[in-house]
């Protein structure tokens, strides 16, 4: 992918680092996003899904269907367990229909599944960003053999066929806590992509005048890293992480789809789609509902990331 | 140049060796005992010991790893006496499930994976670059906005969702395509094309969208360059301007990305092959993972890594040829 151009907003010198600039820049980006119809729609949909995830028990209480509760009255045993009624059994009782064969409520499973997907994606993002920033800055700041070692490890990890390996690791390791394993595996293979950019930017920043000036005036290494370099990485970090989140949601769903993600009966979107594969011809709503939720979530995050990048780039160009 | 190449190849060998070691440790150390899996439910300790000795699992780990490595280059023998089986290089061992030679299993399935990968690549290059070019030339128009909106949407559909949706619409509803089944080209070219069409579309969609956006961005950047202004002021026709001056610098970065994406695909398009039931390397990997067939998992991982690493070096060399500015002396 195109590596982001080195940050150009540092011309104001060291005092611009953490003072007034971020607040106004943040506000400018927020204003630009609110003016954009696509970004607003994306944020609205994400807010809806997050709300669904948080209120999952409430949704279950109101509709009266838990995520793992069988409802034999909603399916037709004469038709091999197909949901009664059209569109996958959508009715006042089951707002998004039911699963064939066991009659579990799709709305409840979507809401509980959102919890799993979002939690895993959020944790993976935090861990990946942490690893990427720490190793990328170490390599860029110290250079020399530290850079050599970290860069070779990154080459090594990026040469791996990550998906095959993720599946293999997840299926060969004993069950344990699947969600934690997923986060570790996704982050373990994901951090080099962020670290590479961070390293490149740190390399150019270290030799900039304002960093040299700070060093000459006796700033400690800690101050150099946290006060001079990190604030200048902020905008590209925000862009890279927002663009990475949809990838993690997709990876989690993909791994669950292949049967190595979260284990049943814990619902997850990928798993719901996976179990609908045998039914797509007779009950298309069964894959359409979770598929649509997954698609719209990834789309919203992608649009949002894209618009944030456009807003940041516009700020840097001016 | 020769020195640079030698350095690259040395690095390549080191990385492949490390991947080999890492994969070996994970699959033969962490996962359940393969001898028990082969032996099945009616198993005696003697039988387990026998299987372990035939597979060489009773030897120390370093020796096992060495045997595996040397088998790759020189071939190796399994068992002894009357049971001696020779496995010629490159020897990836025998499947725990079917007792077939893993290398032969891969050779059997590689054509399907290559067909899927090549077809998809042709599709995404044509669609992606064409859409990106048109978007860039008509920047800001209705066409540009629609194409980029579609590209954003297309890159957000998980490929298995797209696969199911396509199958439902094209096969179940409109009945324009038969249920997917890999038909060899020599049997019936039309049926062959129909059977691979959906896998190609599914695999190509995400990449086509990405390439459309990249092409658009690169062409717009190139059109703003000084040499373009010079060419324009010389009075060059717009079509010629685009073809002669803009395309090469704009598409060079795409070559790099294409090389890496394509190399990654040769290791098997795991999800696409699994969803459509195509018997390629990717599906073989998924199946062997489900059955814990370690020699096969090892081989596919190594093969896929090999393509990625070699692809990287090839891309760098091609890039050097295409862009004189990065030529190494």
TrEMBL record, chain A:
GO terms for biological process: transmembrane transport. Its main location: membrane. InterPro entries: BP-dependent_transpt_permease, MetI-like, MetI-like_sf, OppC_N. Keywords: Cell membrane, Membrane, Transmembrane, Transmembrane helix, Transport. Residues 10-23 have a biased composition (Low complexity). Pfam families: BPD_transp_1, OppC_N. It comes from the Bacteria. It is a multi-pass membrane protein. It is found in: Cell membrane. Coiled coil: none annotated. The chain crosses the membrane at residues 38-59, 116-141, 153-173, 179-198, 237-264, 284-304. GO terms for cellular component: plasma membrane. Gene3D superfamilies: MetI-like (1.10.3720.10). Residues 1-23 are annotated as: Disordered. The keyword Cell membrane applies. Residues 114-305 form the ABC transmembrane type-1 domain. Belongs to the binding-protein-dependent transport system permease family. PANTHER family: D,D-DIPEPTIDE TRANSPORT SYSTEM PERMEASE PROTEIN DDPC-RELATED (PTHR43386:SF1), OLIGOPEPTIDE TRANSPORT SYSTEM PERMEASE PROTEIN APPC (PTHR43386). This is Peptide/nickel transport system permease protein. It comes from Nonomuraea pusilla.
TrEMBL record, chain B:
GO terms for cellular component: plasma membrane. It holds the Pfam family BPD_transp_1. The keyword Membrane applies. This is Peptide/nickel transport system permease protein. It is a multi-pass membrane protein. Keywords: Cell membrane, Membrane, Transmembrane, Transmembrane helix, Transport. SUPFAM superfamilies: MetI-like. It comes from Nonomuraea pusilla. CDD domains: TM_PBP2. One of its GO terms (biological process) is transmembrane transport. The lineage of its organism: Bacteria, Bacillati, Actinomycetota, Actinomycetes, Streptosporangiales.
